[in-house]
Design goal:
- By secondary structure, the chain is α/β, with parallel strands linked by helices.
- The chain has two domains: 84 residues, 3-Layer(aba) Sandwich (Rossmann fold); 135 residues, Rossmann fold, CATH 3.40.50.720.
- The longest helix has 23 residues.
- The structure holds NADPH dihydro-nicotinamide-adenine-dinucleotide phosphate and 5,10-Methenyltetrahydrofolate.
- The site of 5,10-Methenyltetrahydrofolate has 22 residues, from helix 2, strand 4, helix 6 and helix 11.
């Protein structure tokens, strides 16, 4: 049986991070500007914990200023908004990322709309989402950007391809669909109410899974030779009962990687795929934001 090409996030992300590090060094030397990133983590979402760890390491390695604000799950909406406003006003900070999902009781939309659009390195503010939808320059959400870089590297021109995105979140599903459309794909967005999801997925030359359900997408959902981008980050117990009993967990995607690899033409692994690109794109967006705020880039 043929095996899918593995789309290696490590190599591509490393290259992107090296470019960012070079740019940071030049900004420091030529303009005395050090791009600064602030991440706000409320409560204990497992996927967000992975992100915070990975982001912290890499932003420091790239020479950026990086701070993480950890708030308890029961923080009040007004305290959270106060923190966001402080970060908006802080000249050392050029990128603000509030980790999603927020714990129940907090108003995600209100928090995102409080972020200064110029510092919205997640590209979630209506100004950035609207500009993306209209094809205007904007800060583009990191994960969708990372997916597109991997797709272009694997397939080259995407024009005319059938793309199916499973998931319609503001963070991943919708913006990745916008970017695929801008790349001239024929785009279908599927979600929890989609009927016969397997048949919809089988139409895809490009399948992007952003669901948050461990290994939901099976081999018989895949068109032979399709390119599969697995965005899911799910923490699950080990199958090995000894390790499981020790409470050990591992990361898996939304795609049943092993069986799908036997049908797909190319596939991203989890870990080692989209997640690494997300972090690299976050650094890149922070540099872009810093340059624009300093008036160094249009
Ligand atoms: N690798 C990375 O860098 C990143 C990974 N992630 C991960 O990606 C996954 C998705 O994240 P996010 O978009 O924020 O998640 P959300 O929970 O916001 O959205 C999930 C989407 O999946 C849909 N969905 C849920 N269950 C099903 C189902 N059974 N069949 C079809 N569709 C379904 C939902 O549909 P409906 O709208 O109808 O409810 C929704 O649109 C998570 O695992 C997250 O941790 C997220 C960001 C970055
Ligand atoms: N506002 C907001 N924006 C996000 O982009 C966002 C978010 N909230 N909430 C949580 C999810 C999840 N997410 C990840 C990013 C990188 C890795 C990552 O670096 N993964 C590596 C490391 C894995 C490991 O450490 O084992 C990998 O997949 O190889 C994981 C998860 C971003 N998210």
């Amino acid at each position: 049986m043929s095996q899918a090409q593995i789309i290696d996030g490590k190599v591509t992300a490393e290259r992107l991070r090296a470019e960012v590090a070079e740019e940071v060094a030049a900004l420091k030397a030529q303009h005395g500007l050090q791009p600064g990133l602030a991440v706000v983590l409320v409560g204990e979402d497992p996927a967000s914990q992975v992100y915070v760890r990975s982001k912290g390491e890499h932003s420091k390695a790239a020479g950026m200023h990086s701070v993480t604000h950890r708030l308890p799950a029961d923080v009040s909406q007004s305290d959270l908004l106060t923190l966001v406003r402080q970060l908006n006003a802080d000249p050392a900070i050029h990128g603000i990322l509030v980790q999603l999902p927020l714990p129940k009781g907090l108003d995600e939309k209100a928090v995102i709309e409080t972020i200064d659009p110029a510092k919205d390195v997640d590209g979630l503010h209506v100004v950035n989402a609207g500009r993306l939808a209209q094809g205007l320059p904007s800060l583009v959400p990191c994960t969708p950007l990372g997916c597109m870089i991997m797709l272009r590297e694997t397939l080259g021109d995407l024009s005319g391809k059938r793309a199916v995105v499973v998931g319609r979140s503001v963070l991943v599903g919708k913006p990745v669909a916008q970017l695929l459309l801008a790349a001239d794909c024929t785009v279908t967005i599927a979600h929890s109410r989609t009927q016969d999801l397997a048949a919809v997925c089988r139409e895809a030359d490009i399948l992007v899974a952003a669901v948050g359900r461990p290994q939901m997408i099976k081999a018989d959902w895949i068109k032979p030779g399709a390119t599969v981008i697995d965005v899911g980050i799910n923490r699950v117990p080990f199958r090995d009962p000894v390790k499981a009993a020790e409470g050990k967990t591992k990361l898996v995607g939304d795609v049943a990687y092993k069986e799908v690899s036997a049908v797909a033409g190319a596939i991203t692994p989890v870990p080692g795929g989209v997640g690494l690109m997300t972090v690299a794109c976050l650094l890149k967006n922070t540099v872009t934001a810093a340059k624009r705020i300093a008036g160094l880039e249009p």
